Amino acid sequence: MIFQSILIDSDITKNAGLLDDYEEHLDELADLLVESASDERINSGALCDCGAGPVIMQCHDCTEYRATCVECFKTKHLNNPLHWAEVWQTSDGFFVRHDISMLNHTIQLGHSGALCPSSTGSRKFTIVHHSGVHATRVAFCGCHENPPNKTRQLMRARLFPATMKETKSAFTFTVLKECHLHNLESKKASYNYMGALRRLTDNSFTADDPYSNFLRSIRFWDYLTMLKRLGQMHGIDRLLPHRPEGNLVLYCPACPEPGFNSEPNASSVKTPEFLRHLNQIQRTLDGNFQCNQYKKNSNPDDVSLCKGKAHFPVDRDYRAYLKENPGSTEKSTCNYLKAVNKQDKKKFKNMAITGTVNAQCSHVFILSSVDLHYGEKCVIELCET
Ligand SMILES: [Zn+2]
Ligand SMILES: [Zn+2]
Ligand SMILES: [Zn+2]
Ligand SMILES: [Zn+2]
């Protein structure tokens, strides 16, 4: 106990020391913060290093960007067109942030930033990046195909199209990946993530709201990521033919799969009797009656992308099964125990889904799941042997 208290004291002391360091440098930090938003070369009449124009451009997304003229800014950002352009307003005396398209620049696809000799022309296009929502301009390459395959050109530029036909907006792979990780790490909803991106754009919500497009795109992004990571994009079924075709379940690497990570019939043939328990496959069922969903308006035409190949069964088939097996209506006969009889009436009132049950191995790799629809009941089935 004494040892533990010494540890805690030393932690506090160390942290307090670091805070003191900050306080000592507070004035210096404040000066440097203000300095980072300015540039001594701007508004001094200095010419850009190229000699062609005044220094009026700054970029706060680049590291130590040396202020330039407009043309040099465009040249330096051919492969970073989603950096915000900070343009000095000489008459007003401050920077205004623009998308690069406001500098008469178009993002050319298919040529690593260079111009295309057969470009399809500049068109308005919204790109959502982790720096914000960019109302910008894009030109598709027309060198090899006319009309161009826009989806292909966007995807090769690491831009995920918001729609498959006549797309006018896209999300960078970075933004989709970041939102997915934010959701996994902090349960942040896409709505909140989009809200933050709109604030990053101008902090007063004048940017277009890409939320509805984003919901659709990230759903497909997550599904494609799952296909990739589980090997389905690389034909894993050819190598593991003993598993269900097209499956999207992460199999437990520790559980024995005879013929794959253990010898066929290893438990009965080669394993000594006292070690046979190591080759056991242990499966358990675990239910959660707090994982509910209340009844709400949802899209009746919504589709499942996994189609029963991941953890949950095909909803239509499962509902048909439930119709045939509605469960027990048996009431508790105990005079004093009313809790069981009240389960459906109160606890699960107005719920569309009353819980979830998982089947998992002893290493807690989930094999399959189902939604519960009938609340919590106790059913005892007697089997004749
Ligand atoms: Zn930059
Ligand atoms: Zn220049
Ligand atoms: Zn081209
Ligand atoms: Zn396992």
Automatic annotation (TrEMBL):
<dbReference type="Pfam" id="PF18758">
    <property type="entry name" value="KDZ"/>
</dbReference>
<feature type="domain" description="CxC2-like cysteine cluster KDZ transposase-associated">
    <location>
        <begin position="103"/>
        <end position="204"/>
    </location>
</feature>
<protein>
    <recommendedName>
        <fullName>CxC2-like cysteine cluster KDZ transposase-associated domain-containing protein</fullName>
    </recommendedName>
</protein>
<dbReference type="InterPro" id="IPR041457">
    <property type="entry name" value="CxC2_KDZ-assoc"/>
</dbReference>
<dbReference type="Pfam" id="PF18803">
    <property type="entry name" value="CxC2"/>
</dbReference>
<dbReference type="InterPro" id="IPR040521">
    <property type="entry name" value="KDZ"/>
</dbReference>
